[in-house]
């Protein structure tokens, strides 16, 4: 039957191409030309005066000579568009709908870089329109041409859905895995190294565009093959790369610190993902658990400025005291409310989050009220203080790096637990409750108990994250645990892909680093979050890296559906 | 005793603008089973539109605070512009997701709430803004209790609008269509009701009421900020749940109860616990009587 499908697909493609070539000469030529126009734009002046922008946060992106800055990233996309367009000219059999969509994405990204650059200059930096040179406009025009041409090229040629690359040889698989992880690592280092907000914006658009394009042509699905076959190796290599990361920062601890903080949000997001993603319970007060965990660690951590002080060894707090406390609060909140309908639950959790924050603010004898607890020392594990750092074989490992390593261990543990849970009876019960609570109950699942378990598990991991937070930031105060942070963590889960742990990790990293990098626009970051939530839910509700089940549920179209209907037809005909 | 009556009067006044917000929550929930998180922001926008209108009038027509013309115009403009926001939300954020899993529109509503708040914060002001007292500053004392004329006015507006809304839903054709849609959208559609239009109408009415509530709250509190819709919206939602969500009379009853409970709570337990009190009530209601005091039902 597979042969029949293949034959049918090939025949349909030949017919569609015949139709296409009759009417598609202009767009076919226009696509690579648009890319060339984009390249030309990158070599033209982008601003008329360098003096004008000196000292502004985007100045690095505005130099008039040479490359660097935002134009490098536009150039990258322009070259990719030109190359992809030329490839479609040269190889008719590549003109599939999927490749057309990939080219559409390249064109959009190419246009987006100069457009956003101009808009940010005009909106935030008070640069007048007449100070902007011809460069961005030409590049924008090039992007538009590529985009329009690619849309015209979108032939309805059925293409088989992308598949994971099959095994050719072990060596090839190893090379692919190593290359992919190293490229990812280098991209991360480049992203960290770009200080200028405007240039980073260009880098980020280019990265997003390239990733989206590769995903569209099936590259990311293909990568799944080698990675699945070599999972232990890939994970071990990832661990090595992450452990080596602090060594690349040559004594500058800032981004190690930021990465360590991002790690806390990764942990929190993974916990929330159990509640929202796996069990489908919208928790809008999740940061309360994070906060309780942080306060538990602060109160037991020998802080200098505190009202209560009883010391408990850090490892005990991290692994037992804090998570069990938060899990207890999770049960406390969940027990009376989980029998409610889902949307009531959302509002009750929101109320709970506020109650916790206000309570922390008001019980001065214990929490020192709005001042919070501060001067929390680095925890000591045995005789070793985590903050001190040490030198190993000539490499300096800073205190922040040790926090990072600790988090990596905890995240690895969390991921292991989460994966085991998801494949267990409990995980399947969560999904069942999420999909249809009545049906799940009818199948004998004790829904209240299973939802309570999700709540407790989510709170448990938030407690762990919170207890590291207190020591890493050295202070806790109620202001750090407002509703906005609940929304931030939720946005991480939703952006990454509800229910899919790797997606959630990605979402947390993106949403933590973007604001750090775009500090020049920090005023509008929550505005962007708001719109982002709306747009994601509207256009990609399954997130960046969707859970397979979610994707099928939300998008019953695209290649997969095409292939499925074809199989259906085949079955009908053969039967 | 005088203290007690005074607190009661304060609570009833607060309850009035909670009621105007709660009506929107309860109507929207009744008709599409969505907690419109952004509804509190519509109320906040009502207050900002009111302030903006007053400033415009003061600059161009020489309005001063206490002028009744200004009061009427400000309330009208707020009631006319907030529905634009409400309907846009419905059209662009909620309608495309009507068939999606229930988590999706909830998250969208949350995003919309955030976006509206931040739009005001970024493009208007992040600070506390003085709201003019548009109402004559008359007050009288009965048996040791001070009552401001504004408070009486607020209660009158809230109850008057509730009565008008009830009549509208009970007697007019669109009102009947609204009840039909709330009961069963598919059947309503088969009976010739334009369901999309009716849902939009629900948002129009709810937003207009919240907009007027925003202006009243501005006059009562004298200060407005971009964050005011969050807590007020939560309390109004609590009120709607307390009364029985989907139930118009219940929403108003719940709002007055919340206003009174909260004022007493703040007076006798300390103001810093005021918000905890409202949320505590919410949790207790949901645990012990999730259908609310008057039960969930639709229509008046």
Written description of the protein model:
The complex is a heterodimer of chains A (575) and B (300). Chain A has 575 residues and is mainly α. Chain A has 23 helices and four strands. Chain A has helices at 2-23, 25-43, 69-90, 97-124, 134-153, 170-193, 197-216, 219-229, 231-244, 254-278, 287-299, 314-337, 342-362, 364-367, 399-423, 425-435, 437-442, 447-473, 483-496, 501-517, 525-539, 548-554, 558-574, and strands at residues 380-381, 384-385, 390-392, 395-397. In chain A, the strands form two sheets. Chain A has a two-stranded antiparallel sheet. Chain A has a two-stranded antiparallel sheet with strand order 3-4. In chain A, a hairpin with a 2-residue loop joins strand 1 and strand 2 (384-385). The radius of gyration of chain A is 26 Å and the shape is globular. Residues 50-68 and 556-575 of chain A have low confidence and may be disordered. With 300 residues, chain B is mainly α. Helices cover 74% and strands 4% of the residues of chain B. In chain B, the strands form two sheets. A two-stranded antiparallel sheet of chain B has the order 1-4. In chain B, strands 2-3 form a two-stranded antiparallel ribbon. In chain B, helix 5 (149-171) runs antiparallel to helix 8 (195-221). At the A-B interface, helix 13, helix 19 and helix 21 of A face helix 4, helix 9 and helix 11 of B.
């Amino acid at each position: 039957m597979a042969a029949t499908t293949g034959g049918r697909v090939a025949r349909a493609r030949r017919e569609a191409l015949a139709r296409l070539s009759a009417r598609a000469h202009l767009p076919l030529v226009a696509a690579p030309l648009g890319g060339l126009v984009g390249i030309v734009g990158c070599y033209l002046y982008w601003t008329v005066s360098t003096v004008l922008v000196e000292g502004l946060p985007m100045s690095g992106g505005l130099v008039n000579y040479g490359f660097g800055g935002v134009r490098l990233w536009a150039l990258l996309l322009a070259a990719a568009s030109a190359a992809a367009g030329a490839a479609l000219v040269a190889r008719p059999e590549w003109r599939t709908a999927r490749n057309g969509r990939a080219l559409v994405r390249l064109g959009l990204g190419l246009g987006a870089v100069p457009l956003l650059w101009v808009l940010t200059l005009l909106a935030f930096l008070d640069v007048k329109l007449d100070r902007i040179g011809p460069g961005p406009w030409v590049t924008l025009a090039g992007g538009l041409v590529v985009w329009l041409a690619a849309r015209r090229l979108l032939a309805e040629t059925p293409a088989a859905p992308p598949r994971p690359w099959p095994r050719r040889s072990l060596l090839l698989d190893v090379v692919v895995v190593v290359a992919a992880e190293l490229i990812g690592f280098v991209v991360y280092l480049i992203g960290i190294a770009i200080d200028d907000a405007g240039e980073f914006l260009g880098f980020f658009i280019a990265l997003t565009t390239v990733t989206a394009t590769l995903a569209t042509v099936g590259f990311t699905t293909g990568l799944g093959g080698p990675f699945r076959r070599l999972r232990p190796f890939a994970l071990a290599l990832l661990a090595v790369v992450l452990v080596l990361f602090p060594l690349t920062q040559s004594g500058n601890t800032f981004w190690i610190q930021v990465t360590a903080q991002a790690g806390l949000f990764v942990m929190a997001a993974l916990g929330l993902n159990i509640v929202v993603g796996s069990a489908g319970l919208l928790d809008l007060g999740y940061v309360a658990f994070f906060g309780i965990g942080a306060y538990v660690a602060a109160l037991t951590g020998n802080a200098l400025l505190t009202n209560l002080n009883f010391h408990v060894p850090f490892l005990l707090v991290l692994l037992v005291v804090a998570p069990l406390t938060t899990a207890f609060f999770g049960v406390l909140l969940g027990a009376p409310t989980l029998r409610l309908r889902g949307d009531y639950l959302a509002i009750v959790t929101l109320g709970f989050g506020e109650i916790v924050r206000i309570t922390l603010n008001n019980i001065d004898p214990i929490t020192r009220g709005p001042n919070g607890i501060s001067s929390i020392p680095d925890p000591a594990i045995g005789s070793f203080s985590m903050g001190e750092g040490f030198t190993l074989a000539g490499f300096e490992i800073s205190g922040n790096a040790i926090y990072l390593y600790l988090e990596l261990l905890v995240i690895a543990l969390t991921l292991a637990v989460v994966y085991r849970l998801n494949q267990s009876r409990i995980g399947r019960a969560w999904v069942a409750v999420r999909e249809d609570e009545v049906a799940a109950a009818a199948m004998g699942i004790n829904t209240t108990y299973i939802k309570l378990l999700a709540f407790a598990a989510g709170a448990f991991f938030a407690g762990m994250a919170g207890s590291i937070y207190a020591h890493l930031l050295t202070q806790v105060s109620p202001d750090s645990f407002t509703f906005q942070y609940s929304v931030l963590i939720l946005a991480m889960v939703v952006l990454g892909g509800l229910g899919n742990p790797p997606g959630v990790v990605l979402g947390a990293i993106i949403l933590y680093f973007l604001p750090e990098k775009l500090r020049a626009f920090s005023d509008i970051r929550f505005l962007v979050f708001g719109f982002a939530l709306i747009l994601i839910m509207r256009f990609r509700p399954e997130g960046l890296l969707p859970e397979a089940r979610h994707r099928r549920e939300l998008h019953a179209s695209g290649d997969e559906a095409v292939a499925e209907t074809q199989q259906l037809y085949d079955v009908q005909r053969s039967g | 005793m005088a203290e007690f009556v005074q607190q009661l009067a304060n609570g009833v006044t607060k309850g009035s603008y909670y009621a105007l917000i709660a009506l929107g929550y309860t109507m929207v929930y009744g008709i599409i089973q969505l907690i419109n998180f952004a509804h509190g922001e519509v109320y906040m926008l009502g207050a900002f539109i009111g302030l903006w209108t007053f400033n415009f009038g003061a600059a161009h027509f020489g309005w001063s605070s206490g002028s009744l013309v200004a009061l009427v115009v400000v309330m009208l403009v707020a009631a006319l512009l907030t529905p634009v926001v409400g309907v846009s939300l419905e059209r662009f954020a909620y309608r495309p997701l009507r068939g999606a899993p229930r988590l999706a529109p909830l998250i969208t509503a949350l995003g919309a709430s955030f976006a509206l708040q931040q739009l005001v914060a970024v493009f208007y002001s992040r600070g506390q803004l003085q709201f003019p007292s548009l109402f004559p500053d008359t007050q009288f004392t009965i048996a040791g209790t001070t009552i401001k004329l504004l408070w009486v006015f607020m209660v009158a507006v809230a109850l008057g609008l509730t009565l008008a809304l009830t009549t509208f839903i009970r007697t007019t054709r669109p009102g009947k269509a609204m009840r039909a849609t709330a009961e069963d959208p598919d059947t309503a559609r088969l009976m010739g009701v334009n369901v999309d239009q009716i849902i939009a109408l629900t948002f129009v009415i709810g937003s207009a009421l919240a907009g007027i509530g925003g202006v009243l709250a501005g006059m009562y509190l004298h200060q407005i900020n971009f964050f005011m819709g969050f807590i007020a919206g939560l309390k109004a939602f609590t009120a709607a749940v307390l009364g029985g969500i989907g139930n118009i009379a219940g929403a108003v009853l719940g709002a007055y109860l919340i206003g009174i409970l909260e004022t007493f709570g703040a007076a006798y337990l300390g103001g810093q616990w005021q918000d905890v009190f409202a949320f505590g009530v919410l949790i207790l209601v949901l645990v012990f009587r999730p259908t609310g005091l008057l039960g969930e039902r639709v229509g008046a």
